[in-house]
TrEMBL record:
The keyword Transcription regulation applies. It comes from Paenibacillus ehimensis. SUPFAM superfamilies: CheY-like (SSF52172). The modification 4-aspartylphosphate is found at residue 52. This is Response regulator transcription factor.
Amino acid sequence: MYNLLIIEDDKDLADAMRKLLSKWGYHAVVCEDFEHIMKSFEAAEPHIVLMDINIPAFDGFYWCKKIREVSSVPIVFVSSRESSMDIVMAMNNGGDDYIQKPFDSHVLVAKLQAIIRRTYEYRTVETQLIECNQVILNLNDTKLYYGEACLDLTKNEFRTLKTLMENKGKVVSRESLMKQLWNDDLYVNENTLTVNMNRLRKKLEDIGVGDFIHTKKGMGYIIP
């Protein structure tokens, strides 16, 4: 369930929005303390913020900037102000979308669903891929892709590349790699890692990926 924070000083409208969003399966919270909006934000831990511009104390632009100092959560302005300058200011202050009042409830829900897909659901899919220097490792099928080439990896080859690619630009020690590969075997010869690394490098070279994994003598391996 996604948490939504509604920052709207019209109590009737705020309650109507809360009820509408609850019907669609969202957990909507209405901010009631306009002097301390950041406390409400921290308590709600929202996935999306719905923000009016004309609210007591400071306006929505101010609070949008304050939220942006600590979070990249999507912020949707919902306001009766309709000038192009208001829309520009909303976007320039960190807003992600702008909906004018009065709004169609179906349009509001559709926009929120689109933002959720872009921000959270698509991101989940994207994180299943790791890319380094045009080399792509698919965490789902454990295959490596480079240009038009596709490389089937053994379990240890996959673990080796995953560890090195996740630490791109950092040296990964031989001890750390050995623990990743043979954590349950206390008697693996250290030369086994060298043999595995040489085989992996040869497979990479065969599909045109040369000089991908560098050796740092006395330290370990790195993908620069």
